[in-house]
Amino acid sequence: MTLEVDLSSVLPVLAPLAAAVLLLLMDAALPGRREPHLVVGALGLAAGLVAALPGLRLAVGEARSSFCLAGGWCAYRADHLVSALQVCALGAALVVLVLTWRDWSAPGPGAGAETTGRAPVVTALLLAATAGVVAVPAAGDLGSLLVALELATLPTVALVALVRTTWAADRRARAVDGAVALLTTSLVSFGLLALGAALWVAATGSTRFDGATRAEHPELLVLAAVLLVAGLAFKVSAVPFHAWTPVTYAAAPLPVTAYLATVSKVAALGGLVVVVRALGTVEGTTLVAVAVLAGASMTVGNLVALVQQDTVRLLAWSTVAQAGWVLLPLASLSAQAASAAGSYLVVYVTATLLAFVVLAAVVALGVQARPASLEAQRGLLRSHPWLALPLMLALLTLAGLPPAVAGVVAKVVALRPVLGDETWWLALVAAVNIALGLAVYLRWVAVLVAPAPRRQAGGVTAGQGEAGTGDQAAAAAAPAGDRRRVPVRLWALTGLLTALLVAGSILPVGAL
Amino acid sequence: MSGTLGRVRADLLALVPDLGTWWYAVALGPLLLAAVLLLAAGRRAAPPGHRVLHRGSMVAAGLSALGVAGVALDRPVLEASWIPSLGVSFSLRPDGLSVPLLLLTALAGVVATALHLHPGREPRPEPVDLADTDPTSPIPVVRGEDVPGLATYHACLLVVLLGALVAFLAGDAILFFVGLELVLVPMWVLVARYGDPGSDREGAALRFLLVTVVASSLVLLGILAVATATGSTDLALWAGEGGASLGRGSQLAVAAVLLVGLGLKTPVFPLHTWLPWVHATAPTAGSVLLAAVLLKLGTYGMVRLVVPVVPEGFAAWSPLLAGLGVTGIVWASLVCLVERDLKRLIAWSSVAHLGFVVLGLATGTQAGLQAALFGNVAHGLVSALLFVVVGGLKHRWGSADLGRRRAAVREVAPRLGLALVLGMAASSGLPGLAVFWGEIGSLLAAWSPAADRPEGWFRGFAVVAALGGALAVAYTVRVLREVWAGDRVEPRVPDAVLTERTALRLLGVLVLVLGLVPTLLLGVTAPFVEGVLGR
Asked: Can you say how many angstroms the Cα of residue B440 is from the centroid of all Cα atoms in its chain?
């Protein structure tokens, strides 16, 4: 039995992993330095990104594969859609790394064991998790899928827990709480996944997804699929498996939250795409379970987001609602549905990242005691129009309302398979949720465009910062007094992501 | 005679430069450019004065109107690939259905940008009963003045126009939907930020937005269902197929979803409840655009997306639709007899007029469709005229409450008074004015509906609708008696200023012309109507 290995096609996965190993070695060789590690990490992600780009030009039916058996089955298979997901994940991880650059390159408290901060460790964790995310959608068998999913999940738990040691003790305790919530749910979901995988093998007699899955017991296969979907629904934070999301999002540092909200979602969706494609070759039925998950996620996510007073929590609940939109097309098992979900996810990731980047910039400005609260952003359009406009664009994209045509087209793409099947009840739930989602995001937009409140003279004091969130503490630790400026890297990220959304609004890509 | 006219027309047309698809650049470009410039100007620390903003916005709307006129004459076709993966093309294709509405939109745009915006103020002190002078009562400013956020206000007006023009021009369903959605956010801002501060303007704006977004989401579902069935989003192709690729069940479902969605926008009884509130709150120009443009999107969508595309489904639902339309006529007319807020009253009369339009549509005959399209345009003109008058009066009075004693408009503001009389007379369906032809046409069509419609029901609807038309005369008389007639001359209010006079003359002349020579419009829509129902 020979195994064909094509290293160039697995490079999107290998590059981040190699970078992770390299920077751990560097940490041993060059203790006390931080910037080089971050540079190596960024280079690893960028190399993976570049390596994944050629996959975008693949025609239908073509794929870049590796670890192939003579029979034609491959353990790693990246076609057009998978490559797009990989590009999306690597790009988003790169954005997160830039977002968190200053935080991770800052030194630890004056003396003791942590004078170096934790740059090597956290960067290696980020790289490892990203490599897992990139590997998930390309998985060709159940084993690779499960391992890649765990690789994508477990390092993020550590990322949530490993907050800066300069933060107040209660704030760090909350971060541990969030990490524990994430860990518990990911273990439970892994249990479900393992059970689903076992049933899958029992039903089909094979761990491979080799195009023509033949089920001896279709009922068993459906049960396996439902368990697999439930396991993955934890990661995509679909209702009723969403409970960890608000806790963890609010507890983690902002860039890590951005990572969880974007890159991790690619892993979950990648896993779903793999399962749906494998099932699609079996039978053309609708998975009612997915439809119910999608409808419930949208409705609950939007309704709860509607009453949030904190923007991070609002975004957390909005990701629950958006998870519903990502799942929506998958209710009909078809190749079109998988690519529709992928296309929606790409738009969602871009818009959500933009929102988080702007949020980080607002926090860096630190104009108020609680910069992440909704009320603190009142009148942002007047005071900082170049931050408010991209944020409004991102929110309108998530809401799916012109002038953000990219969001409208994404909604169109997501709804198409549902109406192709004429699943009217689900389509109607989605239609109502367009309005609900609009109410959620426009509530924020209305705050941004509202006239600014009268502020008292004098900004924040360090004391207020300690009581607030950790990000504020970081902001307050910076030299206070003068008007703070938004760092150049945040401007660059804002500009890049805004340009992507504007380009996507003028010439939408549509379905991948 | 007609030969001479034809030659004159040909000579005039020869003078029009042949810009081809560049007409679209003239029609849409200035709106987009001016909106962006205005938004940028509004962000500056010291925004330019009201004259610059007002004139800039008017010039943009005027240029765009010229472009729309060119489009209406030339009818160029623009086809460009837009979203290849979905098969969506950026196609602009005006035809007999859209040309009148395009012209109406351009006209409404010029009127809306021309009107001055005034900041909301406290209601004027009410004079003591019969104390016939109140020298301390200030005369309100009716000319242009610097208002905070004026640039954004004008930018919103222009974006609403842009979205409506795109929707009317679109030859592709997804592009139509984008246009339909584009009007929502600016309209929301217009109501929420520039609406009447005396009422709950944010609540009204939110209600408007949520209702119309639910509506357009439903429209999107319908569009996507048809698109997946036919494999295309080309509207001409949809109309050509006539629903052949959809089964009866699908046709019923698609028609139901689309009719509910568009019925919310039109609005059709009982989905109309948002309209009076929003109208009463919106600034005058917002009301003009809402009545003359946004509501037209609903009826346009019915004629474009439902009547030719899912004919079987539409035929099945049409008795219900006609019944709801007729109920709306009677209901709204009865409300008009007791409504105390003048602006809200005009909004209710809109619901009644649109009931006639829906009735004409539902008959499924060529005459009915012609009447509906005519009534649609006529309602746009008349309601724009009335909202200009009533909005002006509301600003002058400080409120639009009919319960207060005011000076007779005939005495203190004769020009506004004349326009009010003309508008209300047209609204009551007086022969010789525009609305008459739409209403009488709908009634006649309902008396003899298409073969597959239940004739008995439709005859009953015709009778009830005729009674509703009589009620219109009653509320017209009520309005004129309470507002226009009388001999009180205090508190004085200023008469129409130049912008209002121009707008009112423009609209008034068109109401008269369409009333006297209805064939002007019927001739434009006839080819389209024959194309849809000739089969």
From this structure: 20
Residue A475, pLDDT above cutoff 50: no
Average pLDDT over residues A328-341: 84
Residue type, A303: L
Residue B402 placed within a domain: yes
Q: How many CA atoms lie within 13 A of A42 on its CB side?
A: 15
Quick one: B373 exposed, middle or buried, by C-beta within 10 A (0-12, 13-18, 19+)?
Answer: buried
Residue of B191, B145, B137, B183 whose CA lies nearest to B161? B183
Task: Give the closest of B84, B174, B225 to A419, CB-based.
Answer: B225
Query: Nearest C-alpha of chain B: how many angstroms from A249?
Result: 29
Beta bridge partners of B92: B78, B170
Domain borders along chain A are 284-512
By CA distance, what is B32's nearest residue in A?
A403
Query: Global pTM?
Result: 0.89
Whether residue B140 lies inside any domain: the answer is no
Of all residues in chain A, the one with the smallest CA distance to B152 is A449
Q: Is the pLDDT at A251 greater than 70, yes or no?
A: yes
A403 in contact with chain B, both atoms CB, cutoff 8 A = yes
pLDDT digits (tens, 9 = 90+) for B340-349: 888 899 999 9
pLDDT tens by residue, B362-385: 998 889 999 999 999 999 999 999
Answer yes or no: is B5 within a domain: no
Token digits of residue B288:
């003009």
What ipTM was assigned to the predicted interfaces of this complex?
Answer: 0.86
Token pair listed for B33: 């450019």
**Interface check A438 vs B, CB under 8 A:** yes
Q: How far is B238 from chain A (nearest CA, A)?
A: 16
Distance CA B135, CA A421 (A): 71
CB atoms within 10 A of CB B237: 15
Site from B90, B175, B181 to mutate, A interface, most A CB atoms within 10 angstroms: B181
- The beta-carbon neighbor of A438 closest among B83, B163, B213 is B213
Token pair 């609260």 in the structure block, residue = A373
Q: Is A487 on the interface with B (CB under 8 A)?
A: no
Angle at A310 between CA A306 and CA A316, to 5 degrees: 70
- Is the separation of the CB atoms in A364 and A475 below 8 Å? yes
Chain B residues within 8 angstroms (CB to CB) of chain A: 43, 82-86, 88, 163, 174, 177-178, 181-182, 184-185, 188-189, 192-193, 202, 206, 209-210, 213-214, 217-218, 220-221, 224-225, 227-228, 250, 253, 257
Residues B271 and B210: beta-carbon distance below 8 Å? no
Which of A392, A411, A422, A425 should be substituted to probe chain B, the one whose Cβ sees the most B Cβ atoms within 10 Å? A422
Torsion angles phi and psi, residue B40, rounded to 5:
-65, -40
List all residues of chain A from 7 to 26 with a beta carbon under 8 Å from chain B. Answer: none
Residues of A in contact with B225 (CB under 8 A): 419, 422, 427
Question: Between the CA of residue A108 and those of A32, A254, B406, what are the distances in Å?
Answer: 11, 18, 75
Residue B212's domain spans which residues?
A: 19-117+146-533
Report d(CA A350, CA A92) in Å as an integer. 8
Taking a C-beta distance cutoff of 8 angstroms, is the pair A350, A430 a contact?
no
**DSSP structure class, residue B110:** H
Q: Smallest CA–CA separation between B308 and chain A, in Å?
A: 20
**Residue B127 pLDDT > 60:** no
Q: In whole angstroms, what is the distance from residue B159 CA to residue B172 CA?
A: 20
Query: Which residues, 6+ apart, have CB-to-CB distance to B411 below 8 Å?
Result: B486, B487, B488, B489
Phi-psi label, residue B362: left if phi above 0, alpha if psi -120 to 50, beta otherwise: alpha
Question: What do you get for the CA distance between the two ends of chain B, in Å?
Answer: 34
Collect all residues of chain A within an 8 Å Cβ-Cβ radius of residue B253.
Answer: 422, 424
> First CA to last CA across chain A, in angstroms?
36
Q: For residue range A273-293, list pLDDT tens digits in order.
A: 888 888 766 655 557 888 888
